[in-house]
Design goal:
Number of helices: 9
Number of strands: 14
Shape: globular
Oligomer: single chain
Order of helices and strands: EEEHEHEEEEHHEHEHHEEEHHE
Structural class: alpha/beta
Strand order of the largest sheet: 5-4-1-8-9-10-11-12-13
Largest sheet: 9 strands, mixed
Strand content: 15-25%
Length: 325
């Protein structure tokens, strides 16, 4: 794989509490933006891989903020301004028990209404890689149609597809999700999933499969490559039948949200620039861990963070709760 990456999905305005506590108890919040696909796009651009994010925002101040934030990172933005729908909202809280809770308010949002015609002619066909997530398949009928259209165009142009399952249980029931995710995974060159997501896609929620088996069978469903993200236990990858395991990079966790997206960006950037699977897994693990060292979904981590002594919890990409609405 080489060249320009295209990704598509919803990015929202993000409200983050400045201190520990529930939103109802806070006196101040910080404004930011967040979205799985744009987070990956930002990570790729920072690694030197040109990337385009395709999406929709409302004609409102929140939409203006989303576009400004994504553009200033160097990502090429192709966005439809929707006059009839509002930009989605997400709220992030750091709870007293150490968890990070993210609540989404996206029903009927502009981003959820992305459609096939929002992706310009030639954009997919000129790409070196298309990156999609399971979130977009669950947002709306039009968003699912957009995913299907992009997959068809990528297949016709022989453009490889990267797929991160990124399951949102409040958006779609498990049986429907499995069907949709499998349909994308079977047309992808590489699939990323947590171990729970891998079990969902493979229909093995009740089976105590080891991570190596999950990675191997998920790779067999795709085009030979799958990466299973295990949070504080690291990650395991299956590439053309070869299994690789990597422990998590230990860091002091500030905010785990966005770590999975940074992990994906790290892997893709490595592969797109000629690295082998072992190096790609190393770079992915380091990127995911460093993303945990800063508050925010996509901000630059301190490059010295990994070298500091660890006196807090080790990195865990899966400890936060999500409540989708």
């Amino acid at each position: 794989m080489s060249g320009h990456v295209v990704t598509m999905g919803e990015t929202m305005l993000l409200l983050s509490g400045r201190s520990v506590g529930s939103v109802r108890d806070l006196d101040a919040v910080d404004l930011d933006t967040g979205g799985a696909e744009s987070n990956v796009a930002i990570g790729l651009v920072r690694a030197g891989v040109p990337t385009t994010w395709v999406g929709r925002v409302g004609t409102d101040p929140a939409g203006e903020r989303v576009l400004a934030d994504v553009r200033r990172t160097g990502v090429d933005v192709v966005a439809v301004l929707d006059p009839d729908r509002s930009t989605g909202l997400m709220m992030k809280e750091r709870l007293p028990d150490g968890r990070t809770r993210v609540t989404y308010h996206r029903a009927g949002s502009a981003g959820s209404a992305v459609r096939p015609e929002d992706v310009p002619d030639g954009l997919v066909e000129r790409a070196g890689l298309v990156h999609l997530t399971g979130i977009t398949t669950a947002l709306s009928d039009s968003a699912r149609a957009a995913v299907d259209a992009v997959l068809a165009r990528a297949d016709t142009a022989r453009v490889p597809v990267s797929f991160d399952v990124n399951h949102r249980p409040k958006l779609v029931d498990p049986d429907t999700a499995r069907q949709r995710y499998r349909a994308v995974a079977e047309r992808s060159s590489v699939v990323f999933a947590s171990d729970d997501e891998a079990r969902l896609v493979l229909g093995r929620q009740e089976q105590p499969d080891d991570e190596e088996s999950l990675a191997h069978d998920l790779a067999a469903m795709a085009d030979g490559t799958a990466v299973v993200k295990l949070g504080s236990r690291g990650a395991v990858a299956s590439v053309d039948g070869v299994l690789l395991r990597r422990p998590a990079t230990p860091v002091r966790v500030v905010d785990p949200v966005g770590a999975g997206d940074a992990f994906v960006a790290g892997w893709l950037a490595a592969v797109l620039t000629g690295a082998g699977p072992a190096e790609a897994l190393d770079r992915a693990a380091d990127a995911g861990a460093l993303a945990c060292t800063v508050p925010g979904d996509w901000q630059l981590p301190d490059p010295d963070a990994a070298a500091r002594p660890v006196d807090g919890p080790e990195v865990d990409h899966t400890v936060h709760d999500r409540v989708d609405r």
